[in-house]
Structure formats: structure tokens, C-alpha cells
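step=encode ok
step=design start
structure_in=
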């Protein structure tokens, strides 16, 4: 394998096969564990409110962090923990794909906790108003919508957090190399 191909392979899939396999195989386990934890503890609706708050756009979300209408501190701490976990994994293994899959597991699990919850949605049709019916409708989330939401959340948040953590880990690994640490952890001194 040429140096360029090896560099790309290590960047995508990691240097250590066992660590990459552990990350990939732990993603479904983390999804199940997080789904059960969210379901039996605070529920999906509460997590959605903690992450999104009362905002409806990215600008409101960013401003809402400071005004108290956006994501709560615990949600930001959770996101930072996911970024830190991805960064540490990337610093040890340097594989983008296993890092992203490792992060997507818990997020997919949180999306699975949406199953069976009652959601409300607004129907923009004016027909409801002509018959005196309210435009708000309530329905229970089924398995297809649950899987779709879980995949959407895992892709949206997992990929962005995984790439951020991967970048932080790669930069950390480079900085560590600049300060004279070899691959085996011993300091190298050149005269």
C-alpha cells in the first residue's frame, strides 16, 4: 500500500483495527442503552425541549443560549461530552468513520426513545376553522416515524459532532507530536 493510500485509509478507518471494531460494534449497544435510559428517566420530549428550547431557527437557538430560551446547560454539557469522546477516540485511533459511528449510537438511541410518545402538530388547512375544529392535532409516534427521526437525528448531530471531534483529536495528535512524543509515548530529544 502506498503512503498516500495508507494515509487516507488510516484517516477514514483508523490505525488500530480492534479499536475501530470496538467503536463500530459499540454503536448499536450504546443506542439501545441510551434509548432505554431516556425512556425510563426523563423521556424524549424533555430532551427535545432541553436541546431545542423555545427556538425555531438557528439564529434563535444561538441567541437563546444567552437569553435562557434556547438549549439548557445540561444539553450543552451532553453535546460537549460527545465531542470530547469523539476527540479522545480520534486521538487514539484516528479513524473518521468509526468516530462518527461511535457518536451516532447514543444519538440514534435518543431518537428511538420517541416511540410511543404523543406529539402535536399544526394543520395549516383553513377547513378546520370553518367547521369549528381546532387546527392542532395529536397523534402517537409509530415505528416508522421513530426510525426516521432517529436516523435523521443521528445523521444531523452525529456526523457534525463526529467530524468536530475527529478534527479536535487529529489536531491534538499533531500538537502532541510537535512536543516531542514518539508513537510509543517516550519523549524524543534531538541534539
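sequence_out=
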Amino acid at each position: 500500500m502506498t503512503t498516500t493510500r495508507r494515509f487516507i485509509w488510516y484517516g477514514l478507518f483508523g490505525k488500530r483495527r480492534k479499536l475501530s471494531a470496538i467503536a463500530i460494534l459499540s454503536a448499536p449497544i450504546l443506542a439501545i442503552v441510551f434509548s432505554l435510559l431516556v425512556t425510563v428517566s426523563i423521556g424524549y420530549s424533555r430532551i427535545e425541549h432541553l436541546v431545542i428550547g423555545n427556538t425555531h431557527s438557528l439564529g434563535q437557538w444561538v441567541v437563546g443560549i444567552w437569553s435562557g430560551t434556547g438549549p439548557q446547560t445540561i444539553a450543552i454539557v451532553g453535546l460537549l461530552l460527545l465531542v470530547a469522546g469523539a476527540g479522545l477516540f480520534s486521538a487514539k485511533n484516528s479513524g473518521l468513520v468509526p468516530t462518527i459511528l461511535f457518536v451516532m449510537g447514543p444519538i440514534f438511541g435518543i431518537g428511538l426513545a420517541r416511540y410511543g410518545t404523543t406529539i402535536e402538530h399544526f394543520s395549516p388547512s383553513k377547513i378546520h376553522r370553518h367547521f369549528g375544529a381546532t387546527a392542532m392535532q395529536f397523534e402517537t409516534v409509530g415505528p416508522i416515524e421513530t426510525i426516521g427521526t432517529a436516523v435523521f437525528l443521528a445523521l444531523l448531530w452525529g456526523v457534525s459532532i463526529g467530524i468536530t471531534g475527529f478534527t479536535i483529536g487529529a489536531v491534538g495528535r499533531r500538537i502532541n507530536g510537535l512536543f516531542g512524543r514518539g508513537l510509543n509515548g517516550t519523549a524524543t530529544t534531538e541534539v
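step=design ok
step=annotate ok -> Residues 143-178 form the longest helix (36 residues).
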